[in-house]
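Backbone shape codes:
***
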Amino acid sequence: MLCAVFVFLGDFALAKVTQLNYKATFGMFGTVGTIKNTLTQNAKTYKIQTKVQLAGIAKSLMGGQVEDYVSKGHMHNGLMISDTYTMTSTKKDKIVKKEYYINHKDKYVTKHYRKWRKGKLVKDKKEKLKFYAKDDL
């Protein structure tokens, strides 16, 4: 059974996971936000996840804003090479999602921007960007 699970999971079974968590405080206001980072990495691929959450008075003033960032890619000569990068911001009834897809073969980046209000998609735009960087996380 254990052998079957290892074969099914492949490289993910050998992944190294690193977590870094931060808390931002501001004088008498106390904790105003937290940042949680997770790096999952093996010999072939990586994934970096970051979640930023406001707390206390900052959360109230900013409408409960939460931001998520995810970079996924592959390893090349010990370096992380990003294949996708996603930023998602949630605030009250609004969600904004920016996704970047990196085409290393043809050396270009595609950006997909979407915005929802009250659960309804109000903007959906794709564009090929004028820049490319091989190792941009």
